[in-house]
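Revision sheet: structure tokens.
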Amino acid sequence: MSEIRTSRTRLLAAAASAVLATLALTACGDGTGVKDMGASAAASGPETSGSSGSSGSSGSSGSSGSSDSSGSGSSGSSGSDSVVEGEGGTVTQGGTKSGAGRGGGKKGSRDVVCDGSTTKTVAAPVNRPVNHMLLTVTNTGSKRCSLYYYPQVRFTDAQSVPPVIEESKPQAVVSLDPGQSGYAGVSLSAADGSGGDGRTADSLTVYFQGRSGGESVGQGATPSLPAGGVHIDDSLKVTYWQTEMDTALSW
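Predicted:
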């Protein structure tokens, strides 16, 4: 009886061992064991999550976002206009204009004063209005410049400059980008003879005023006059600098 029980116990133990061995082989599959599968999962898992976590927390989109908020955004809001002042008015730089002057320029910048060294001046008599001449000043320099007040013109050996027509005062200073032109009209003589006998002038010098006005600054310009000169009398006057040719010849 004892022997039968012992044999039965050994059979049950052998059967159990066979079942366990079968289950182990099924789980291992390739025979490498559970440890290899766990190591593979541990190796691939953290790398993937670490990579995505790194890009998510410190990725380029996060950096560019903060750059945008302190870069182009702040530059747009902090681009406050600077102002160029003169008797003829003001021009705000940075895209906003005050009056009829030309705007533009960088924040904090101030236009240089136009003078004969960075401009080309042309003096041309016109048919209408009669006895008038147009001064055209073109910015030939590389920087934006401003024409302040009005031209101080001196014909031949004149001892003084003619007065300005106050009604021609514009709302803003005329500022010229490279290549742009400004204009002023010159009333040479009275059509009705009220300016006296007058005389013929064969040379002309144009002087430019600075921001404070009252005196010429920089280099003057000496535009050519027509052959035979121009007739001037005591009614000689000039206009303020204008942005438009027609406006300069309105007085």
